């Protein structure tokens, strides 16, 4: 593993753990090791953003997009109100059977995932997550927690380049997580077209 990749991996881990200060340090070392690498700039930008340093984050996102190697496009920013409208529109456009299932879960919108929710995942960012017992299961510890579907704004912004793409991605995330609530695994979701 290249020295810069070690720092990139550590910066993503810090990002997922909501430790942006550490993430900025690791990403800064990756940028120093290879200033032409887009992923180094991108993970730096994500940690700066999570730390509330938005102007610096935007400059780093711009550098990531112009990088000579592994360039990464800049995020498509939306206001919190616009994000909420997009999630509500996606919910309103669900087929009746999925809309009924959505009424059975708590829909949680946030900028970022809480670290405990994603500690078992290796992906740098998740768009959403289903948490709790699948439909029809009762009892046990999962029965004590209301089923929840989490949808995160920043990860959607980071993966999209237009408002239309953002709306489509939010719709897909909502379908996907509802599929998990209904008891489908990843293969089942793919067969149903909910992946």
What portion of residues belong to β-strands?
5-15%
CATH topology of the largest domain: Zincin-like
Low-confidence stretches: none
Shape descriptor reads: elongated
Describe the structure.
The chain has 195 residues and is mainly alpha-helical. Helices cover 57% and strands 7% of the residues. It folds into two domains: 3-66, Tetratricopeptide repeat domain (Serine Threonine Protein Phosphatase 5, Tetratricopeptide repeat); 80-192, Zincin-like (2-Layer Sandwich), CATH 3.30.2010.20. It has ten helices and three strands; from the N terminus they run ααααααβαββααα. The model has no long low-confidence stretch (mean pLDDT 91).
């Amino acid at each position: 593993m290249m020295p810069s990749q070690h720092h990139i991996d550590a910066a993503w881990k810090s990002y997922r753990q909501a430790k942006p200060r550490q993430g900025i340090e690791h990403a800064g070392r990756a940028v120093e090791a290879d200033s032409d690498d887009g992923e180094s700039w991108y993970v730096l930008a994500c940690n700066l953003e999570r730390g509330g340093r938005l102007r610096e984050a935007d400059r780093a996102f711009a550098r990531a997009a112009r990088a000579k190697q592994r360039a990464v496009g800049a995020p498509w920013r939306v206001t919190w109100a616009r994000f909420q409208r997009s999630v509500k529109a996606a919910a309103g456009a669900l087929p009746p059977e999925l809309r009924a299932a959505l009424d059975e879960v708590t829909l949680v919108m946030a900028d970022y995932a809480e670290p405990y929710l994603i500690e078992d995942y290796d992906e740098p960012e998740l768009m959403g997550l289903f948490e709790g017992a699948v439909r029809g299961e009762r009892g046990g510890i999962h029965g004590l927690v209301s089923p929840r579907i989490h949808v995160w704004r920043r990860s959607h912004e980071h993966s999209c380049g237009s408002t239309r793409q953002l709306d489509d991605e939010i719709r897909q995330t909502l379908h996907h997580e509802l599929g998990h609530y209904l008891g489908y695994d990843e293969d089942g979701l793919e067969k149903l077209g909910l992946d």
